[in-house]
Each structure stands twice: as structure tokens, then as C-alpha cells.
Amino acid sequence: MARTVFCQKLQKEAEGLGFQLYPGEIGEKIFNNISKEAWGQWQHKQTMLINEKHLNMMDPEHRTFLEEQMVGFLFEGKEVEIEGYKPVEK
To answer: What is the pLDDT of residues 63-77, one digit of tens each?
Structure first.
């Protein structure tokens, strides 16, 4: 049976992640407060950010930048700004 969480990003009860996908305290917070759907949205944004900014995941500064973007997107209602990318108007 899938576990549900109250997703802080989507502000609704939704299916939670199957296991902690990110290390440490932030990973625990994501596991407990972010849905599978919202994590999928972040994965999409993360891929675009890595590609556009040519991020190297071996570089601690790049990882810190990405983590800041992730926390902002998932918990602070911030949109990820990707140059040349405009979200579809609803």
C-alpha cells in the first residue's frame, strides 16, 4: 500500500515517495513532506538546470546551488528560473 503525505509543495494529500531519495535532514524532510508528484516536477526542473547551467555534480558549489534551488522549489514556493524557458501559462 502506498503511503500518503500532506505535500507541502502541492498543498494536498498525495502519494509519498517509496523511500528517502536525498541524504540527510533535507532528504528526511522531503520524504515526510513531499509527494511523488512534486518530486517528479522537481526532477524535471533539476534536469533542465543541470543541462542549462552545465552543472557538474562532482563540484560541491554546484551541488549546493542545486540543493538551494530544490529547497526553494519544494518548500518555499519559488519557481526555478531557467534562462530561455518560460513555464506554460495556465
So the answer is: 999 999 999 999 999
SS3 18: coil
Tell me whether residue 64 is in a domain. yes
Read off the CATH number of the domain in which 31 is found.
1.10.3880.10
Does residue 86 form part of some domain?
no
Q: What is the pTM of this model?
A: 0.87
The domain tally of the chain equals 1
- Residue in this structure with the C-alpha cell 530561455, named with its chain if needed: 84
What is the distance between the alpha carbons of residues 42 and 48, in angstroms, rounded to a whole number? 10
Residue range 18-55, pLDDT digits in tens: 999 999 999 999 999 999 999 999 999 999 999 999 99
